Amino acid sequence: MKKTEEKPELWKYEHEAFAEGFEVVCGVDEAGRGPLAGPVCAAAVILPPDCEIEGLNDSKKLTDKKRRELYDVITEKAVSYGIAFASHEEIDEINILQATYLAMERAMGQLERKPDLALIDGNRAKDFGLPVRTIVKGDSRSASIAAASILAKVTRDRYMEQMDEQYPQYGFAVHKGYGTKRHYAAIKEAGISPIHRRTFLKNLDEK
After folding, report:
1. What does the pLDDT look like over 3-35, one tens digit per residue?
2. Contact of 19 with 26, CB cutoff 8 Å
3. Rounded to the nearest 10 degrees, how much is the dihedral formed by the CA atoms of 87, 141, 62, 27?
4. For range 127-145, the mean pLDDT
5. What are the C-alpha distances in Å from 9 to residues 3, 103, 141?
């Protein structure tokens, strides 16, 4: 079956870790590093070995509907998961990279089981107090990271939809805070909202 042919590749990094003796492996990813407004969100997920989740993939390659469906499946099947934010104020204070690490640390801190290895999307990470392996494009190459990418993306999207109700003039429900033409036009017309990242808008006059 196609599904069972694809699954071992998505589980490659987890299988390697298990073979080396790691028992509790979590995947970690973030959503919302690039937007002009709102928090950055991170998720950490521990899946049962060889957990079967049909359609699991990088959140960016899925439709919004599919992501939300998979969110429910992942949270139901996961051994444990954590989801956390770093606020727009924290992003402005410590920069987006450090705020991303802060959100990741908070998400891992929510896990009911302490992982002995974290697989993290990207090419760099800080010292989280446990062994870490970074995987470039990990959200499409690791089942655990793919699951984390979906939880982070859906959670942040839902948050921005709530912010749209408070600040409807910006269109947050549509662009989720990213720098679209509509978003820049709204900022010029309505000004900067309380949830905008001031450090991301320093060159606003050039847009």
Report:
1. 333 445 899 999 999 999 999 999 999 999 999
2. no
3. -40
4. 95
5. 11, 28, 7
* Distance between CA atoms of residues 79 and 24, nearest Å: 10
**Model confidence at 112: pLDDT above 60:** yes
- Give the span between the Cα atoms of 146 and 166, in whole angstroms: 31
Task: Say if residues 83 and 99 touch (Cβ distance below 8 Å).
Answer: no
Could you list the beta-strand ranges (E) of the chain: 25-31, 40-46, 80-86, 117-121, 132-135
Q: Determine the 3-state secondary structure of 155 from DSSP.
A: helix
Mean pLDDT of 172-193: 96
φ/ψ of 120, rounded to 5, equals -120, 135
Q: In what order do the strands lie in the sheet with 80-86?
A: 80-86, 40-46, 25-31, 117-121, 132-135
Closest to 6 in 3D by CA, of 140, 96, 133 = 140
The three-state secondary structure class of 140 is helix
pLDDT over 90 percentage in the chain: 88
40-46 and 80-86 strand pairing: antiparallel
Cα–Cα distance for residue pair 8/12, rounded to 1 Å: 6
Q: Give the N- to C-terminal CA distance of the chain in Å, as an integer.
A: 50
Rounded (10°) angle between helices 143-166 and 64-77:
120
